[in-house]
Write a structure and sequence with these properties.
CATH architecture: 3-Layer(aba) Sandwich
Order of helices and strands: HEEEHEHEHEEH
Strand content: 15-25%
Number of helices: 5
Distance between the termini: 55 Å
CATH topology: Glutaredoxin
Strand order of the largest sheet: 5-4-3-6-7
Structural class: alpha/beta
Number of strands: 7
Largest sheet: 5 strands, mixed
CATH class: Alpha Beta
C-alpha cells in the first residue's frame, strides 16, 4: 500500500512539474522603450533574420546584478552577430538607469518588460531566452549560475556558425 501511495504522489508531482514548464515558442513582435535613449523604442521585428538573446531582469534583483558581467561578456563576443537585450521588469526608468550606472552595464537595455515576460512565461529572474534567426526559442535559463557565461557562449556559438 505504501508503494502505491508513493507511486501516485510521484506521478502527481511529476505532472505538476511538467505543467509548470514554460511553453516558449517564438518571439512576438514587441516595442519596448530603450533606457538611455529618450523617446526611442526597441522593436523585435527590426531583428528578423538575426538571433536574439533576451535577459529578463529587475533593477532590484541581486541575482540579476550578478548575471550582468556574463551578459556584458556575451555581448562583447557576439553582439555584432546576435541582438542581445536586457529586458527590465521595472515600469519606471530611473531605478533601471541607477542600476546600469552602478554596475557599469552597457548592454542595450529596455524597461517596462512585464507584458513580454508574461507572454513568454517568464516566472523568475534573471531569465534568459535565446531565439534563432526566425525568432524561435532555442534555449532558456532561469536563475543565476556561476557558469552562465559558458551557457551563453555555447548557445550563441551554435547560432553564429
Amino acid at each position: 500500500m505504501k508503494k502505491l501511495v508513493l507511486a501516485i504522489l510521484c506521478a502527481l508531482s511529476t505532472t505538476a512539474c511538467l505543467m509548470s514548464l514554460p511553453e516558449i515558442t517564438t518571439l512576438p513582435n514587441v516595442q519596448l522603450p530603450l533606457v538611455n535613449e529618450e523617446k526611442s523604442t526597441w522593436n523585435s521585428s527590426d531583428y528578423v533574420g538575426k538571433p536574439v538573446m533576451l535577459v529578463f531582469m529587475g533593477s532590484w534583483c541581486p541575482w540579476c546584478k550578478r548575471t550582468m558581467p556574463a551578459v556584458m561578456q556575451a555581448a562583447e563576443k557576439f553582439g555584432d552577430q546576435v541582438e542581445i537585450v536586457a529586458v527590465f521588469m521595472d515600469n519606471d526608468v530611473k531605478p533601471v538607469q541607477a542600476a546600469l550606472k552602478e554596475h557599469q552595464f552597457t548592454v542595450k537595455s529596455v524597461y517596462n518588460g512585464g507584458e513580454l515576460a508574461e507572454a513568454l512565461s517568464v516566472q523568475g529572474l534573471p531569465h534568459t531566452i535565446v531565439f534563432d534567426k526566425k525568432h524561435r526559442a532555442v534555449q532558456h535559463w532561469e536563475g543565476f549560475s556561476n557558469d552562465r557565461l559558458k551557457d551563453f557562449e555555447a548557445a550563441l556559438q551554435k547560432l553564429t556558425k
